[in-house]
Write a structure and sequence with these properties.
Strand content: 35-45%
Number of helices: 4
Distance between the termini: 7 Å
Number of domains: 1
Oligomer: single chain
Largest sheet: 16 strands, mixed
Mean pLDDT: 80
CATH topology: Jelly Rolls
Helix content: 10-25%
Low-confidence stretches: 4-21, 211-231, 236-254
CATH class: Mainly Beta
Radius of gyration: 20 Å
């Protein structure tokens, strides 16, 4: 009997320690080049592979000529470009109430966000960089952290809000416009990028006309054949939770 209670106590500790960290927020659906990932519970960096799950607190670093796509359980896609340092800081998603709360950090490099699903008014998706914070509800945009002192934003579809966290002034950036935020300064007024600037924005990450969200998953034959089950699991079980099975109770002979 004592053996059972000890086993059950260990299970409770494991269950508690997993918490939200055991809830995958997304899956790697494409990787070209080399990237590493670090979990919140470990200081070890490990090589990132296709089909790896991504959890809250995970940090991804990419090398040169590398591109990584994360398919989130809310049907969004994040494309991480070369020489980029990305962290999924927080993420929660409730399909039944159509609520999403997410915060990601981009310390250097490029990331493209395809957030095409419409969520409730109170839902939030924020992107933080060393010089700026972008607030998003549902759109398609690119963030380029050039350095610790400069971040650039370009919107392909929808509208995002941008501000320097040290200042009050905020601007709204609409489709087809870009802005930049320098250290200690407010965002520049929206501008239309030149063809050369557009090439620089999308260099190494993705063509401007590439589709995103659920359309990418369903229209890409390779990805579709592997990951259609992600949507089915999410619809039947909400967010898939990976937890150990509890120990069986002792038999009468014990």
């Amino acid at each position: 009997m004592n053996k059972f209670f000890v086993s059950f106590a260990i299970f409770i500790v494991i269950l508690t320690s997993y918490g939200l960290s055991a809830t995958p927020a997304g899956t790697i659906i494409e990787i070209k080049g080399n990237a590493v990932i670090q979990s919140e519970q470990s200081s070890e960096w490990r090589k990132l592979h296709l089909k790896d799950r991504v959890f809250v607190g995970d940090v991804i670093k990419t090398e040169e000529r590398t591109r990584v796509k994360i398919f989130l359980v809310d049907e969004s896609i994040i494309t991480i470009g070369p020489k980029t340092h990305f962290k999924l800081d927080t993420f929660s998603f409730n399909p039944s109430s159509n609520q999403r709360e997410a915060n990601v950090k981009l310390l250097v490099g490029k990331a493209r966000f395809n957030l095409q699903r419409t969520f409730s008014e109170s839902s939030r998706f924020n992107v933080s960089t060393p010089t700026a914070i972008a607030g998003v509800k549902g759109t398609n945009f690119l963030v380029w952290v050039v350095s610790d002192e400069l971040t650039r934003f370009f919107v392909s579809e929808g509208v995002i809000s941008i501000r320097n966290p040290m200042l009050v002034e905020e601007i709204f950036l609409a489709s087809g416009f870009f802005s930049e935020v320098k250290q200690g300064q407010a965002p520049t007024q929206p501008q239309i990028p030149s063809p050369e600037q557009m090439q620089e924005f999308f260099k190494g990450i993705s063509p401007a006309g590439e589709t995103g969200g659920i359309e990418f998953l369903l229209n890409n034959i390779h990805v579709n054949s592997i990951f259609r089950s992600i949507i089915e699991q999410r619809n039947t079980k909400d967010i898939l939770r990976v937890l150990p099975e509890p120990p069986s109770p002792p038999s009468a002979q014990q």
